């Protein structure tokens, strides 16, 4: 089909550290494909382990998983150790993904951006904020991140 993968995200169970390291070595050495730790990187302690034991090439930061302070700590570990960074999300609205996008843009060190989870929602409850056109994310110059909830569309 002419598709060349560049990233293999979380190929094993989140607690299978040995398997993660094995898949990373094979993917990197044999196929030149990077492996990202997603569910395996839930804290700064996990990021430290991934870096020190060379268990993955990339760590995926999700603010809903690690929180803002945890994300900042993981970014610091990744930058010091040479791990690449990915920003992602759970199934969240553009409000949360807008914050994640601003964080990634502000640091400028994220190699992979996966902020498409709002596309999984049946409708967009956010007014304003960033806009997506294909693979391009356009951020506004508004206060904060510029997005607000349509309170009339929120189901309580």
TrEMBL record:
Residues 5-146 form the Enolase C-terminal domain. Transmembrane segments: none annotated. InterPro entries: Enolase-like_C_sf, Enolase_C-like. SUPFAM superfamilies: Enolase C-terminal domain-like (SSF51604). The keyword Ribonucleoprotein does not apply. This is Enolase C-terminal domain-containing protein. GO terms for molecular function: metal ion binding. Keywords: Metal-binding. It comes from Punica granatum (Pomegranate).
């Amino acid at each position: 089909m002419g598709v060349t993968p560049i990233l293999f995200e979380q190929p094993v169970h989140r607690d299978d550290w040995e398997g993660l390291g094995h898949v990373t070595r094979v993917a990197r050495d044999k196929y030149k494909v990077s492996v990202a730790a997603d569910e395996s990187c839930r804290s700064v302690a996990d990021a430290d382990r991934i870096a020190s034991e060379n268990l993955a090439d990339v760590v995926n930061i999700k603010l809903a998983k690690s929180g803002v302070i945890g994300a900042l700590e993981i970014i610091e570990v990744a930058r010091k150790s040479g791990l690449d960074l990915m920003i992602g999300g759970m199934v969240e609205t553009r409000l949360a993904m807008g914050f994640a996008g601003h964080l990634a843009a502000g640091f400028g060190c994220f190699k992979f951006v996966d902020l498409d989870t709002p596309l999984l929602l049946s409708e967009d409850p956010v007014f304003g904020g960033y806009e997506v056109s294909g693979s391009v994310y356009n951020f506004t110059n508004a206060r904060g991140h510029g997005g607000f909830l349509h309170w009339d569309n929120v189901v309580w």
